Amino acid sequence: MKRLLPELIVISILTGLVLVLISQYASIPATERTEQVMGTYATITILDRDSDRAQRALDAAFDEIRRIEALMSAYNASSEVAALTRNGTNWTALSPDTLYVLTKADYYARISSGSFDVTCNPLVTLWMETVQTESRLPTPDEVEAAKALVGYEQLLIDEAHGRARFAQPGMSITLGGIAKGYAVDRACDQLLAAGIEHALVNIGGDMRAIGDKNGAPWAIALQNPRNKDEYLTILELEDEAVATSGDYERYFILKERIHHIINPKTGYSADECISVTVIAERCIDADALSTTVFVLGPEAGMALLDAYWYHGLIISADKELITSTSFAEPLVLRPL
Questions:
Q1: Are residues 247 and 332 in the same domain?
Q2: Which end of the chain is more exposed for a tag (fewer CB within 10 A), N or C?
Q3: Which class for 228: exposed (0-12), middle (13-18), buried (19 or more C-beta within 10 A)?
């Protein structure tokens, strides 16, 4: 009996640790809320034993998302983005949030030689409003006229004085390829400030995980872009963000598939990819990079991801699935 005592003590300690782990994770309730924001739906899931704290955190996070939307929506006449367009070549005072997003956008424009360009709004408007409404393809002259109003170098940002302006009249911006990612990050900042340690923020497919989910990573199914009822793989997130850009999100058919991700250099919908998924530490980077890589195409896009060591999955126009070299283990992918 004496010889068994140490073994019994060890077993007792291990059993106690297992029970502690089970009690830590098994009974954590989920508090979830979905609201319509930024032209899509946002869902925030929180794992926390304090339901009152979880509800307060949800309130703060959604208030922050709506605040970002009010600043950056191109469809809100009182937004800073709308003011920038109205003021044209005159300086527009900007909040730190909008200034930060514009400087981030400028960074991705520069490392991609203009493949990511928030000043492409005239082209987006031409294709997604004029062409779609009139059910006709634009003339080459119309495309060239819109392209003449595009160029990230002509968006002048004065960080020292918190302002921006355009170098020529008639220009405008869209933050559709970066603002949702920033809103996800700001929502996460609110959750963290409220003491939340386990959560998932999802705005229209742009997601960021805080901590884990009951002791395991958050499992995210990556949709098959050509069949919404199927998924290609399961991504595991823990203190990471993911965003996907695809030709199936906003599109219409007019002899060919026309979608909202415009190549600023050609003036037409980018056509080398079906979808691009990027995993990054912060969602603003995943959001901007997924659009950037989509426009660059598989070869140049994957070279960019590998150069900066981001996880990425590209589905090319010919349905080839290409993963970045940064994945520690190859993704298990279903055939497209």
A1: yes
A2: N
A3: exposed
